[in-house]
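Blinded run. Sample ID left blank on purpose so nobody reads anything into the name before looking at the predicted structure. Input follows.
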Amino acid sequence: MTDQAASYTDRSLVWKAPDTDLSIKEESMLSSIHPSPQRRVRWNQCTALAPSVTTVLAVSVALTAACAPADAPRAADAAFEFDLPNWSEQVTLREGWLERRHEMLLPMMRQYDIDMWITVNEEFHDDPLTEYIAPPRPYTGNRDIFVFIDTGEELRSVAITGYSEVNLKRFFESPDEPRPASQVLPELYAIYSPQRIALNMDGRKGMTRSLTYATYGYLSDIMGPEATSRFVSAADLIEEYLDTRIPEELEAYRNLVHLTEVIAKRALSDEVIEPGVTTIGDVRRW
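Blinded prediction complete.
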């Protein structure tokens, strides 16, 4: 391997936590996903996980490259069998988690003094949060808007979409004949008079500042100057929501971490690497 590749491999070794099944408790490993050190370890008040099945695999491939020597026995790895879910199976699995995740949201909104949270998904320019607060399916309604409101008694979840989507009805108020946001948002504001309206803007990570300039202006125009004066950043709420995982996710995560370790061991063994010749790019392409 080149010096660059060797250095990369050496740095990768720190991600492996000895004598544990999961090697994901290091703060630095999660720093590329979630920015808040004080909330690093959460597991619905337990252990933090990466945000989705597919992201887990991608992040773990990059960060858990703690492999055994080239001649290490591979019997345990060979015995591990796990079928990576296809896209449809992943959607079904994640939709099964979504109701539980919505149950966490009201206490979090109150913790950060948020009365209304608005996420806007742009057609062909998806908000990265959409797949974690709504069914992870394509949305093509120009601007599809997801609103969470603390009514004082419960969480009200409203989807304002360009087209009716049957799966949304499991998690949001979503009429068969959608009404425009220019009608629905002012009505919600008039009913609840939220003092703090959180938008996905500002913050230190892209996940917390995905709202476009044009859509900020659109929300301001349709909701009016009083509501605009109550716009605040949803950054802390977003970090809390993404950093907190539910126990139902552990089995899928454990399988993917194990699968990733098997892949990493093979990628960094003599099956792939020829000392002095193989580059990082060669390993990535493998």
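Unblinding after everyone has recorded impressions. Residues 1-73 have pLDDT under 50 and may be disordered.
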